[in-house]
Amino acid sequence: MSSEPVIEARALGKAYPIYRKPEDRLKQLLWGRWHRYYEEFWALRDVNLSVGRGETVGIIGRNGSGKSTLLQMICGTLRPTAGEVHVRGRIAAMLELGSGFNPQFTGRENVRLGASVLGLTAVEIEARFESIVAFAEIGAFMDQPMKNYSSGMYARLAFAVCANVDADILVVDEILSVGDAAFQQKCMRFLNRFRLHGTLLFVSHDSGTIVKLCDRATWLDQGQVRGFGEAKEMCRLYLAAQAEEATHESDGFRLGGNRRTFAQVVAPHNKEQPEIGHGEEAEADALSFDPDEELSVSGGAEIESAAFHLAGGVRLPVAGGGEAVDVRIVCRAIRMVTQPVIAFVVRDRLGQILFSDDTYAVATDGVHEIPPDESFTAIFSFFLPYLASGAYAIEAFVFERAAGAITLLQRRQDQEFLYVQSTHPSNGLANIGMRAVTLTVVTDEPQRSALGPSAEAVSSFATEAAR
Amino acid sequence: MTGTEVVVTAQGLGKAYRLYPRAEDRLKQLVFGKRRRLYEEFWAVRNVTLQLRRGEALGVIGENGAGKSTLLRLLCGTTRPTTGTAEIEGRVAALLELGTGFNPLFTGRENVWLSASVLGLTKGQIKSRFDAIADFAGIGEFMELPVRLYSSGMKARLAFAVSAHVDADLMIVDEILAVGDAAFAQKCLRYLDRFRARGTLLFVSHNTGTVAKLCENALWLECGEVREFGPAGEVCANYLTYLAERSEAKVSSERNAPAAKWKVSPSPPLVRDRRKRTRNRVEVSGFNPDAPWHGHGGALIENAYFCGADGRRVTQLEGGDEMELHISCRAYRDLPAPIVGFMLRDKHGQNLFGDSTYLACRDASPSVAAGAAFTAGFRFQLPYLARGDYSLTLAITEGTQDDHIHVHWIEEAVILTVRTSPVRRGIFGNLARDIHMEVGSAAV
Q1: Nearest-CA distance from B81 to chain A in Å?
Q2: Domain extent at residue B400
Q3: What average pLDDT does the segment A353-364 reach?
Q4: How many domains does chain B have?
Q5: The pTM is what?
Q6: B48: phi then psi, degrees, rounded to nearest 5
Q7: Which CATH number does the domain housing residue B229 bear?
Q8: H or E stretch covering B55
């Protein structure tokens, strides 16, 4: 963690006057010096926050908990009533409130406006204009007044501007919840790259996104900080608070237990086990490359398609989960290719890799030397996990293994998606099919058993999944 | 039952915007417009004809910019159509783009009065319903503050709360659920589900799952025109198929095979990956009853452990093996239909996979008397896991999958440590049934 915080809030608070009667407003104006005619409502109170350079901090809380108010004050679009906030560096915000767009102006005009507010010179804006337009992808609407935009289009344009202004700090409000799948992939790729060097403040009520993206999180509730710490722990407390709300008061609700770190649970001497590359890890049967890097390609082959098919059959653009599938990757050699290796990765909506595979350790009889213009195909057959609903990106790679070295010939990304309409009720990233699920009541008090005399399991409800 | 009564009629509805290449053309058009046309027309919605009867629910889907929002605005009359007509019978509560209809300078309270009276409620009615509206919105003291200070989530809450209390005949809901938090979205969906019994619903969403669940019919808009109209499940599936195929068609000249219909898949059979790979050793800790927990405590999870294929308890697992997770519980109150579930999480707390007894047992859910013990078993093939620490979250709940009360919810109750793994990239290792390469493009 960096020594110098880039965002620092001390005892930050925002109060609004609440006038119970309209005439009180006038009275306050006239005699406000001597008497107070309003009540104070603190939308946010006594918030301390320190975010270091390069950190990603999440803000979680229900609607009306003060998340937006806090962000607005950090961005300087709202003046605090109490305390102070210091920000070091250029801050770009994707906020729904005070985003700086004027609804009467066209998208084009607002891009210039928004970018110059963020400190870009006219020349800089001109130079980046095309990439902003390309990022937003809203076509002819660029020349429409923004009041005619849908919220999705609005979000696209706001994100496009923020992504192109070289911000040091990026503040992202729940804006990512609007917009379609392809755009979300693009935003996440940008955010994941940005996180490597920039500071990100991220607001969401989706704890899954918070734990994935954030190191630490602040939990706001009714304008006050209920907790600040490890993102996972804050999300747990937030979830528990929601569960409490759903529970009838008469049932009672309790919270307990102690968190131990993983290190406390796992026997320490076991931690000294060999790292990757030693012991049983056979380096020889692994293809190592990092798909999250910008990899350079040498271009000896083309990847013509990379798609999911039903096993041995037709293309599968929409899956439910659990299907027997083939990932087919078809390549074409441009020059003579020796011992090609084909790999793929599947990414979720947050851009993280769920699973991947390659042909490195597979016997490739007859696919040693591919003459120019010849096609070659890799087929990976497996059962698709029960993925959560959404769009998944498929990325493909083709390598050449010649003279003991591995060279990347081509990479193909952003071209193909697998859409999943989940048939699994759970909300894991990649659920697995259960082979059997049982719920059994064990009655060990025969006098209480109304169902039968057996002291054994009286009622067993087992559902053996088909097949 | 007046099931045949038509509530919404749109006939050849269209909206064109004028695009001026240069700003000054707008003025020129005003002055010299009779002789020349300096603008290009952009049709946001074109030639939409539809009819909606009482009690029907219609979902509208389509990409950003397809004209969904414009169509709704045309239907409820906030935008004037360029062509065609739209007619609505009865009282309409429209939840369009956030907070339209609210005056940003007025307080939430004032806006409730304003919009409820615009929607035709009498003073007495508003007075008697105000508390219910405020309660449904759940925004507390913000009610007394100007709406301009609201976040989109708060606006959505207030707007929905008003609409839910004005005895609307037709509700128009546009994406609004996307901005509310999970608890509020649940509340709204529950309300809409009930509303469908008496009223007509027009619903716009990116979430085709919600559309398919909530609506009988769906309308798919593409570039302002109706691409498809029909049963919601079918239209949603075709829409998703189209999205997938379009992203492929951009680069591939290959002809696409007809889309496969999605279906509920049975549990997959046991898979053996025949490659010689690094072993995937997983150590399992004992159950920690003192791990962080919450709930009303009507039943408690007392133990959780894994058994191998032979039914014996194990503390070492191997990725790719079949095993069973046992969760032992005891009831302290009568539980009519408990649900037991688990979730495997990574060290960041991200959900990887899990399941519950709800679906498997809902048709014959055992009721558990106070004092009785009950156990849940989950048999599955452990996927290959990447190196690192994982935890099991275990839970007993009551209710249904989507709407439940936590009886006992315990996190990080069992820790799994993966020491060695064949997984190089990603979270899961792929359990391949087969991998092969061949020369040629392998046409099927």
Answers
A1: 14
A2: 280-429
A3: 84
A4: 2
A5: 0.71
A6: -100, 125
A7: 3.40.50.300
A8: none
